[in-house]
Amino acid sequence: MDIELLKKALIREKKARKEAESILEKKSLELYNANEQLKDALENTNLFSEQNPNAVMRFSKQTKDLIYANKQGKKISLFLNRSSNSKLKEKFIQELNFSFKKVGVYQFDLQFNNKTIRFFAIYILSKKYLNIYTADISDLKETEVQMQNITKRFKQAQRVAKMGSWELDLINNNMIWSEDLFYVLHVDSEKFIPSHENYVNLLHPDDHKLANEAFEKAINQKKGYILTQRRIFDDRKDLYIDCRGKVRLGKNGNVTRLYGICIDVTEKTESLKAKENFTKNLEIKVNERTQELKESLEREKELSILKSSFVAMASHEFRTPLTSISAASDVILKYFDKLGKEDITKRLIKIKNEVKDMTIMLEDILIIGKSDVQKLDYNPEVLDIIPLIKHIIFEYQLSESKSRNLTYKISLPSIMASVDKKWIKHVVVNLLSNALKYSEKNTPIEISMNKYKTRVVFGFKDYGIGISKKDIKLLFEPFHRGENVGEISGTGLGLSVLQKAVELHKGKIEVESEIKIGSNFKVTLPIT
Ligand code: ADP
């Protein structure tokens, strides 16, 4: 074979091989494409399953046209195209355009008649198309609305009940308060950081200990608690808050969470307190009234005793002076011509003295009859008691037939005090007449007057019959007379009157006495 022919044959073969290669390449590309299409078709038949009750749609990025759709997808597309509701279509197109710009899953809801359809759009960049899947969420939507209504009603109920809730995650030390708890406790939700410590700081200092103890007990003893605490303010009334806490345990059995509610119970607590106060006041009033009734009953009793004692005393004590007045006047009338001037005067003085004694007696009875000291006439004035007492004694002695030996012990030239002259006369006359009456004529009577920082003291000391211990206790009771008085006349009223006089001056009276040795009566009065 010649070389030229061989060369030509080689070139032809090379060319043929190249052609064959390019055909092969073309064919394999076709095969590859066919394979890819087959794969897509397979995938699409899975993806765009006709049985799928939810719509599956694919839109082209370039034309924005629907490329694929399953049965449900076609239905939606048809509905949108034919729908008289242009707004719905507009909204769909708007959302579609949005979806092409989003990365990941973009979702939107559309309302088809009574149904709410949720669209999940995924833009596949490499393929330049958008897959859309739908789900009928009408039921979900209804549940959502119901949930919203329940939450709304729950919130309203919380507002009405003035209640808020809280939860404390002990592991992360994170506390959450419901919006209403801020409202219930009147705390600014923007500024306040919920924590146990910050909560305690809102309370009355007296409630801090209790709140902290309950909190620690809940954690250590795994026990819930109920506490009423006071929320305090600078500018408004305290609130009473019922705080209830419960525990939640973790896997290891330790408390991991505390949760609870706080309720404003101010109105309830206040009305309870008002009720309690009302009951208490009522009780006090009832007790007061009972006491008053008891006292008035006691007074009634006293008065009735007084009356019977008075009758007994009057029949005896009035008879004696009246008999001697009658006897003296009889003698004067009968023997007026025969009696000398001196005899008549003697009898007239006797009558006068008896009348004086009866007048004192009657006055005493009137004073004792007034059971309430406040009702007695009392007009104090500041004066020197030394001349006052001396004058009363002088006047008293004038009417006595024989004056007794009186000694004075006075430490100061003058003793000023605020006293009622009329009542001081009662006191002095009574003490002096008793000292004279209950002692022998030849024994002295010592009268003392002293002044201390805020009080004046005056006393009458005698060396007479004295008073027994038993009688001293009852000395100031009206009509009480000592067991040793014997024939000495008296009403048992003088010292009761004296006590009233001392009471009016806010002073006191003291007695020191011993049988057959003598008695010492001391009156102490405040200076003003
Ligand atoms: P009266 O002297 O009219 O009986 P009083 O009320 O003045 O009534 O005194 C009550 C009683 O106190 C007297 O009855 C007497 O027993 C006793 N008493 C009072 N002063 C003295 C006194 N200085 N010495 C002894 N007993 C006295």
UniProtKB/TrEMBL annotation:
The protein's name: histidine kinase
Q: CDD domains in the record, alphabetically?
A: HisKA
Q: Which segments does the entry list as coiled coil?
A: 6-44
Presence of the UniProt keyword Phosphoprotein in the record: yes
Q: Which organism is it from?
A: Psychroflexus torquis (strain ATCC 700755 / CIP 106069 / ACAM 623)
Q: What is its EC number?
A: 2.7.13.3
Listed A to Z, the keywords are: Coiled coil, Kinase, Phosphoprotein, Transferase, Two-component regulatory system
Q: Which residues form the Histidine kinase domain?
A: 313-528
Tell me a Gene Ontology molecular-function term this record carries.
phosphorelay sensor kinase activity
Q: Which InterPro entries match?
A: HATPase_C_sf, HATPase_dom, His_kinase_dom, HisK_dim/P_dom, HisK_dim/P_sf, PAS-like_dom_sf, PAS_fold_3, Sensor_HK_Regulatory
